[in-house]
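Here is one record:
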Amino acid sequence: MKYLTMRTTRFLFTFSFLFSVFCSFAQQNFGKIKGTITTSEGDPAASVNIILKSSKYGTTTNDDGTFELNRVRPNTYTLQISLTGYETTEQEVVVTESETTAIDVQLKVSNKELHEVVVNGKKSILSKKTDYVARMPLKNLENPQVYNVIQKELLQEQVVVDIRSAVQNAPGVTSKIYPSGGLEISFRGFSTGVNARNGMENMTGRSSISIDNAERIEVLKGPSGTLFGSSVSSFGGVVNLVTKKPFEAKKTEVSYTGGSFGLNRIALDINTPLTQDNKVLFRLNTSVNTEKSFLNYGFNKTFLIAPSLIYKATDKLTLSIDTELYNTNNTRPTYGRSYAAGITNPTDLKVDYKKSLFHDDLDAKTSSAKAFVQAEYQLAENWKSTTLFSFIDENVDHSYQYYTVWNSPTEVQRMVSRFGPISNQFTNIQENINGAFSTGSIKHKLLTGVNYRFTKGTFNYAATKPLDTIDVTKPFGPIRKKQVDAALSDQSFGVPDEQTFSVYASDVISFTDRLSAMLSLRFDNFVQKKIEDTEGYNQNALSPKLGLVYEVVKDQVSLFGNYMNGFQNSGPVNQPDGTLLILKPIYANQYEGGVKVEAFNKKLSTTVSYYNITIDNATRTTPDGFSLQDGKQVSKGFDFEFIANPVEGLNAMAGYAYNDNRIVKSSDATIEGNKASAAPENVVNFWVSYKFQNKLKDLGVGFGGNYVDKQYKFEDESFYAPSYSIYNATVFYDQPSWRIGVKFNNLNNKKYWDSYGMAQTPSNILVNLTLKF
């Protein structure tokens, strides 16, 4: 079977890759126009409108300022280039059969403005342009799914240095660090990780993730198993990290950030074409970070190196390679396992807020190596093939993880587990075909895809043991590594190999220029191999997705509704009477409706929606030990997002999410009707910034905050993290060749805890200096 799996993997990858490559030899009687648009300052100009006058051809520039018009009929055209704040440019171009016409244009600031307007080509924080959410080019107003986009320009303005601070710019999102080291992100009552990278699987459960290679972060709301599968999405949605890509200009940025608790961080971003014809482009992002914890013990050290390459092999075929090595050496957060009766929240505990119960020689060392390869081939004017291969190798050398049992507000039992060595490998091969066609007056945007996923790993573990019990009101020392190693003995566990074969299709049908429907379906075959005494199993899942959009005001206001499905594979369960219960995949079904607005020349973007997510077949255990698949959970609520750029220099964004996630049916009758864990009822975020336009030009200020409601740690509602509000501010001065920013976090010096009851960072300050070449 192993041999067959290897042969299947090689065959699928070879076939799909050769299919894309061989098609490059097809001859077409068309030409092509490509080019690069830059601002008056020489920066790449994003979202520039490009049209060929008196023709059907048109497009917009990418984030790197580049554009392509494919399959253009030979002729002489007038190319019109326009961007708000700049003079509209027209240029004559001659398109020749089977040839590529290349142009480079630098925009000029418009003299018609009443005051100087500086548009630097950076992505607007209002922009929701993405090909990943629907796996096809689909505008926000055309998409029946709710999603949020966090641009790197916003993160630079906020002096963000970690992924947690970044994702909390999305409405309803909260986050915390797992005791294992990975990042947990929660919204709509369910948890996930940053499990997608440019749309492909990106599992980092024990090594976390860096912000330094992020172009933007996309938060897709609602069960998304139909297009992304069960390994990437949760019942709440998907978080997709879009990485920085090479572009056709030389540019370098060197950044240093220093701050409270010994933070020292250096980041480098180098972009350069490797050939004069710009057919080979290279970009390197790298960073080094060291910092201490606000606790008396604890630290975090990281190292990132992420080179990427684009090779434009032909006018139709583009190859890209995106790689990353990320090493971490840090201490893990403490997890409270249980609390005595009467202890309802962390404020009841008498331990000092800034005091650790464990020494930082109990550390963790992890590494993750990633490689993503893509071949994109233009099959015809409206048809494209995209072949993708990804491999992730995540390794844990060792990881000491801390646990406590609170016997009273003053007495605590301390224990430590040691994990590692642990290894996990994830391999994915994917082929997508995107196309557009018409059946009479009805237009179609079609996606068809196939995906093969294979995982394997090893797991070693030293069991948790109570080490001592102390009174935290009296002098005590931290638990040390020597004491732990003497008490633990290693165990090795087998990890079964898994493979998933998936096929999916999605058709966006435009009945008119305002009314459209999305019809999507996915089939998964999941196989877990037999290992030791554990039986393997084979399970199929079918996941549909339906959506409807009507643009009440064309290109400005749309009404939408959707039905979305997510699923989790479940293995067979041995019953007390010796029988075997074959479980079905656990399904979550969402119904949602709302309105999207993009008005005032795209200076206002708003989304409001109501959703209901139901899990009807969750597994539960009866008092006599039998497993049943009839548990039920319902999560419902609404999301609101507001983003605006009302006047030049002023940006405002706000989000509010209400969620009611409850256990409707369970084997434990005492928790029926209770709220699910880590599901706050109300979450608010906002950020307002202003960059002065006249006398204090290039000086900017920003202010924002987050409110998170009470969160239960356990579903019996016995222990909770209190609600909290924190506020942040920034001052920055941005020049073409340099930038300086100062960030004040937790201005109100609030003591607060995440949903695990872990204390969070008090007031701190960050200072950033960036040099641009």
About this structure: DSSP finds five helices and 44 strands in the chain. Residues 1-28, 111-121 have pLDDT under 50 and may be disordered.
